[in-house]
Amino acid sequence: MKRLAAIAALAAIATATACGSTGTTDTATAGGVYTTIDGSKQINASAPINPFNPVGSVFSGYNGMALAWPKNDPIDPNQYYPAIASSWTVSPDQREVVIHLQPNARWSDGEPVTSEDVRVSIGLAYTQGGTAYALDPKAAGAAADIQVVDGKTIRITQGANRSSMFLSNLLSTVVVPAHVFGRLLPGDFWSTLKLAQTGSGQAAERAKSRITGLAEKVIGFAPPHDVSAGPFVLERVNPGAALLRRNPYFYNSRAIAPDKVKVLNYTGNEQIWNYLISGRLDNAPFTSVPTAVMERIQEARGSRVVRGYSPVSTAMAFNQAHKPYDNAHVRRALAYLIDRAQVTRIASPEGGTPAATTSGIHAKAARAWLGDGFDRLDPYRVDPAKAAAELRAAGMVLRGGKWAMPDGKPWKVQIHVPASFSDWVSAAKSISSQLVDHGIDATVVTAADYTLYLGELADGKYDVGFWLIGLGPSPYNIFQRLFGQANGWQMFGGRLRHVAPGTEGNWMGGPQVVDAGADGRVDPGELTARLNFASPQEQKQIVGVLARIANQQVPVIQLWDYVNTQFVNTSRYTAFPPDDDESLRLSSGVWMQLGMIKKRQA
Amino acid sequence: MTNAVRGRPRWGAVARKTGGHLVRGLVMVWVVATISFVIIREIPGNPVLGQYESLIQKGMSPEQAERATAVLYGFLPTGSLWQQYLGYMGSLLHLDLGRSLSTPGVEVTTLIGSAARWTVLPVLAGTLLSFLLGVTMGVYAAIKRSGKLGDMLALSGSLLHGVPVYVIGLLLTAIFATLWPILPSGGPVDVEFVPGLNPGYLGSLLQHAVLPVVTYTLASYGGWILAMKSNVVAVLGDDFILAAELRGLKRGIVFRYLARNAILPLFTILALSIGMLFGGSIFIEEIFNYPGLGLLLVNSITSRDYALMGGTFLVITIGIVVANIVADLLYTAIDPRVRSGGAA
User: Fold this and answer.
1) Global pTM?
2) What distance in Å separates the CA atoms of residue B332 and residue B344, rounded to the nearest whole number?
C-alpha cells in the first residue's frame, strides 16, 4: 500500500506540474498561437503530409495551397481570389486559360514556386481523375494540353467537349513542390498521358491503366517533412491536434499575424461546442448548434457569430416510383400542409432560414438567377384547403377524418432520416406531427447511420427521405441534385442517358419528360446537362425553366436554406471577415492570406 | 500426500494445459476471423455515397467531394467473396492485415498500433485503479457492513455501477473542462510539446489522461466493490475463518486469509477486463477525443473500411483469447485447489 501511495503521490505531483505549465509552452511568442479546427476532416496522425491523401496532414489555406480560392458568389462559380496564381486570363469560351504565378512565391525550404511545380501537380491530379483532369478526352471540361510558357506562366487548353466549369476546376488545382512530389511521375508520364488522351485501341487503354495505376502510390506517398508554399508549415501532428508554424518564405508573409496555428481535432460536434464555450477557439467553421448551446457559446468572452450565405438546402424528397408519390397532386398537397417556418424553428434555428418556396435553389441564389420570376413561383404557404383539393384531384379519399389511397387502403407516410442527423430527425418529427394534425398518418423511421441511409435510399427502399439540394454556385450542380443521377439521368463519356426507376441509383423515379406548362414538354435532365456548357444567358433561361418545373412538379419539398454560421473569438485576434463576406466559407488560413485577422493589441 | 507435495506445480500438466489452450485459442481466432470477414462484408449501406454526401455537408464543393470520394473508394476489394476470403486468410498468415480504406495508403497494422497506444494508457490505468480501489473498499464495506461506513461504501458502489460511463464522462468534462477549465478534454497530449522524455511532454500526457482515467475508474469501481463485498461476506462465514479466530490468530493474518480467498474470482474478471481493453472504451474515447481502438473501430464501421474493421476485430479477439488463457493459468498458479486438480 505504501508503494502504491508513493506512485499516486508522484503522479499527482507530475500532474500538478503539468497543470502549472499549461499556459506557458515553448511556443508562446509575439504573434501568438491561433487555434481553430478543420471543418472538412478530422486529424489523422498516421496519414502522410500529402494533399492527395484525403485525410493527409495538409490543411487548406495553411500549409495547403491551390492556384486560387473560390469566392462565395451565389451564381458565378468562376469567381476566385488569387493564391499561388496571382492572375489569370481566360478566353470567352473558356477554351484557353493562361495562369500567372505569384512572382515572389517560394516553398518553405526556400525554393521558388515555378510553372514546373504546377505542371507536376496537374500530372499528379491526372492520376486521381477529376473533372478538369479526366483521362477520357470526351469528358466535359477535360484539359487537353498543358504548356509551360515560362517559369511563372502556364497555359492550359480545354478539350473539345467544353464545360463552363473549366476555369473553376483549374483554379482549384492543389499545388505541390515538384522537387518533392515529382519523382512519383515516371519519366514517360507526359507521353503516356498524350497516348491515353489522343490514342485509340489497346495502347490507349494500357496508357490509361498506367496512369490510374499510379493513384495508390501518389496517395500513399509520405514526404519526410512538410514543404509548403502557404503561410504556414506543419511542425508536428498528434491525434489531438496539428501544430503549424509560420513559413518565412510565404509570398505575403507580412499579412500573417499569428506565429503558429493549432488545428484541434474533434470526434463530434459536442467537442467543438465545448471548445467554443470555454473560449479556446479563435475560429470554428460552420457547426450545427442547438439554441441552448448557442446561448452558452455567446456568453464566452470575445465570442461572436458571423453569418453568411451557404449554398445548400435541406429538402424532403419523394420516390416517384412508389404510389401515391408518383402523382404531383399528392406531392403538392404535402407541400401545402408543411409549415416550413415551424420545421426550421425546431430543427435548425441557428443554421437555417425557412425556404421561401420550392425551386431547388437556395433563396439568395434563386433571387439572383430568377429576378422577379422568383416571386411568381408558388410559395406553398400553409393552406389545408388547397391541400385537400390537390389530394382529391389525385383521387385520395377522406374517411373518418383520415386520408386514404384511392382504392380505400390506408395511406401511411413514412419519412426516413439518418439517426445521426439530429436536425433532420427533429424536422421529420415536426413534419409527421403536422401531417397527423391534417389527417395523414405519418411516422418517422431512422436509419442507423448515414452510410446505411444513403444505401437504402439509393436502393429505392424509401418512399420519402431527406436530401440535400441547391449545391451552388454552379447551376449544373444545383439541378443535378433534382434531375441528375438520383433521378435517372447519367452522364457517361460525354453522353447523357436515362435509366429506369429503381435501377443504377435512380431512387427518385421521376418521369424523363414532364409537362412544364408554358415551357412545353421538357426533359429536365437534358436541360440540366446543358447547363454545363451553356452561355451565361442560356444558363439563366434554363435555370428559370428548371426552377419552375421544380416548383410545379415538386420532386422535393424544400424545407430550409442553410446559413453559414461561423464562430469567431475576438479576445486574441481581430479583423475577422464581416457577415456575408465572400470569403466566409474559406479557412482562416485564407483569411490571413487576404490580409484579415490581426493580433489584438493589449 | 503431504501438503508440500500437493502445493508443488506439476509442470508437465501445466505445459499440456497451456498447449491445449493455445490450440483452442488459435481455432477460436480463426473462427472469429472468418465470421467477422463474412459479417462485415454483409453490412448494408453505400459507403461511396455516404462519403460523398458527408463531404458536401461539411461544405465541400460537389467537384471536390467527388474527387475525394473517388480517391478513397478507388480501392474497394474486388473479386468473389470466396476469393477475397482466401486472399484475406493468406495475408493473415503473413500478419498482413491489409491497407486501410479510410486512411488510404496506410497499413492497418500501423493504424491499430497507433490507436492501441492511446487505448492502453487510460483503459489499463483505469482498470487497475478501479480494481485496487474497488477491492480495498469492498473488503472494508464487508467488514463494516453493519456500520455507516460500510453502508456508504456499498451505496457509492451501487450508485456508480448504475450510472452509464458516458454520463460520468460528460459530467466530468462539463465540470473540469468547460465550467471550471483546469483539465484538458481534447486529445491525448498538447501538440505544442516536443514528444520525448521531457517533463513538459510527460506532464501534458498525464494531465490529458486524468479525466479519461478517472471516468473509467469511477465507471468500473462500482462493479469491483460490490463483487468484492459479496465475496468477502461469503468467505466470512467459512469455517476456516471461524477456526482462525478461535485459534486467536492476529487480525492482520485473518484479514490476509480473508482477502486472498475472496479475491480469487475477481482475478479472472480482472484478467478478462485487461483482455477487453483492446476493444477500447468507445464512449470515453469519443468524449475525450482519445484516438484509441474503440474509436478506430467505430470509424471503420461508419466508413465501411473492411480491412480496418477486420483487423480491429481480430486484435480484440486475440486480446480476449489471450486473456482467457492467462486467467486460466493464473488461476492454476494462485489457487492450490485448481493446481492439484481436485478439491483442497
Assistant:
1) 0.83
2) 13
